[in-house]
Amino acid sequence: MKNVNLDDLEKQILLAQKELISIEHEGKTIGYYYPIGDREAAKKAKEELDRIIDKTLHPTGLTEERIAELRSKLDYEAANKAAEKLKAINAQILAQTGLTEEEYVSMFMNAVEDEESCV
After folding, report:
1. Rounded to whole angstroms, how far apart are CA atoms 52 and 37?
2. The model's pTM
3. Over the stretch 68-117, which tens digit does the pLDDT of each residue have?
4. E-only strand ranges, 6-95
5. Residue 67: partners with Cβ closer than 8 Å, 6 or more residues away
6. Three-state SS for 22?
7. Is the pLDDT confidence value at 23 over 60?
8. How far apart are alpha carbons 77 and 83 in whole angstroms?
9. What gap in Å lies between CA 105 and CA 87, rounded to an integer?
10. Burial (Cβ within 10 Å: 0-12, 13-18, ≥19) of residue 70
11. Domain-by-domain residue ranges, the chain?
């Protein structure tokens, strides 16, 4: 992945072939540019994404605008650091307990199901 400054974005997009570009402004990543290789595959992927969004937004009451607003407030650098830290902690837990990732996740899923059945 190539990192570019927001001011250089237009030039870099024109130069990009199929390379993912991370867009930075004032030293922080503010977005990504994914060049479209196969337009038909991109169209199908967009349609599938739209179907997924429709299925998930309605039950939650969220709108695309609200999701965009929430995303704009995210500190992606901090989120990535937290995700890496969580991965390391999970790896330690799995190593210490001997559980597989699936067994570990199912413990939480069972706890949530038990809690929901009590309500």
Report:
1. 22
2. 0.37
3. 788 788 888 888 899 899 999 989 999 999 988 888 888 877 765 666 66
4. 21-25, 28-33
5. 57
6. strand
7. yes
8. 10
9. 13
10. exposed
11. 1-35, 37-74, 75-119
